[in-house]
């Protein structure tokens, strides 16, 4: 297996990114796909593109994909509050999460907050934690849902499959993509429509965790351990 990663930016502002793990025969297709994704993105033109290929040498961990649930947008606040409550995330922490999502900083990865106090626990600054070395190999929903949702579900599965993680909130920073999600191992991947207004780059990923989580191990799991997500 090989890992292939793409990252594109303009004047150091993140525009687009993608990655997967695949067999050698699929590498060329992914190279073309990621090249096109980077150069023809609605977030704008790019002045930097990084395409990286590495052989996967460590054993791959298998993770079971979270199930997908669709929520209504007209009860947005209520829905999110309820989901937070049911997953042990305080209202204060949820609101703090939205503050990070709405501020002017464009984090390229996720931010980790205490589910109780809302304090930020990682020290990765503007970079955030990048979930890396993953592939969604046996997704039964291929064709049923978009590539974007498939990728988001894979990331959400990685972020939520670790002892001490309560939930993750995601709002896309793509200009006109207004569906976000709230995911947890307890309740699954809840898609939330109209989580933001159109024509804004505000967005981000917030992971809510127990204060006693082994943060170093969790970050190593997210960034370095090869992970394959399977749909059962
Ligand atoms: C992104 O691609 O920028 C984030 C993906 C959010 C997907 C939400 C959904 O449609 O389920």
TrEMBL record:
Biological process (GO), any one: biotin biosynthetic process
Q: Which cofactor does it need?
A: Mg(2+)
Q: Which UniProt keywords apply?
A: ATP-binding, Biotin biosynthesis, Ligase, Magnesium, Nucleotide-binding
Q: Name the catalysed reactions.
A: heptanedioate + ATP + CoA = 6-carboxyhexanoyl-CoA + AMP + diphosphate
Coiled-coil portions: none
Highest taxon in the source lineage: Bacteria
Instruction: One Pfam family, please name it.
Output: BioW
Q: Does the keyword Magnesium apply?
A: yes
| Metabolic or biological pathway | Metabolic intermediate metabolism; pimeloyl-CoA biosynthesis; pimeloyl-CoA from pimelate: step 1/1
GO MF entries? 6-carboxyhexanoate-CoA ligase activity; ATP binding; magnesium ion binding
Q: What EC identifiers does the entry list? A: 6.2.1.14
InterPro entries associated with the record: BioW
Keyword Transmembrane attributed: no
Q: What class of enzyme is it?
A: ligase
Cited function = Catalyzes the transformation of pimelate into pimeloyl-CoA with concomitant hydrolysis of ATP to AMP.
Family assignment from sequence similarity: Belongs to the BioW family.
Quote the subunit structure annotation.
Homodimer.
| Name of the molecule in the record | 6-carboxyhexanoate--CoA ligase
| Annotated source species | Staphylococcus saccharolyticus
């Amino acid at each position: 297996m090989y890992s292939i990663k793409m990252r594109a930016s303009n004047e150091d502002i993140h525009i687009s990114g993608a990655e997967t793990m695949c067999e050698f025969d699929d590498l060329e297709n992914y190279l073309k796909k990621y090249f096109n994704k980077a150069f023809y993105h609605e977030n704008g033109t790019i002045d930097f593109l990084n395409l990286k290929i590495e052989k996967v040498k460590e054993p791959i961990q298998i993770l079971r994909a979270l199930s997908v649930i669709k929520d209504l947008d007209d009860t947005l606040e209520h829905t999110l509050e309820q989901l937070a409550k049911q997953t042990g995330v305080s209202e204060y922490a949820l609101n703090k999460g939205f503050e990070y999502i709405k501020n002017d900083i464009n984090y390229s990865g996720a931010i980790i907050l205490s589910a109780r106090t809302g304090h930020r626990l990682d020290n990765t600054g503007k970079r955030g934690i990048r979930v890396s070395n993953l592939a969604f190999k046996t997704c039964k929903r291929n064709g049923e849902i978009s590539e974007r949702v498939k990728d988001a579900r894979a990331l959400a599965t990685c972020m939520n499959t670790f002892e001490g993680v309560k939930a993750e909130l995601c709002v896309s920073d793509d200009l006109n993509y207004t569906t976000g999600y709230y995911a947890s191992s307890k309740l699954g991947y809840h898609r939330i429509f109209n989580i933001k207004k159109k024509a804004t780059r505000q967005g981000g990923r917030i992971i809510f965790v127990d204060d006693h989580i082994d943060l170093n191990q969790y970050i190593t799991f997210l960034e370095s351990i090869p992970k394959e997500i399977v749909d059962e």
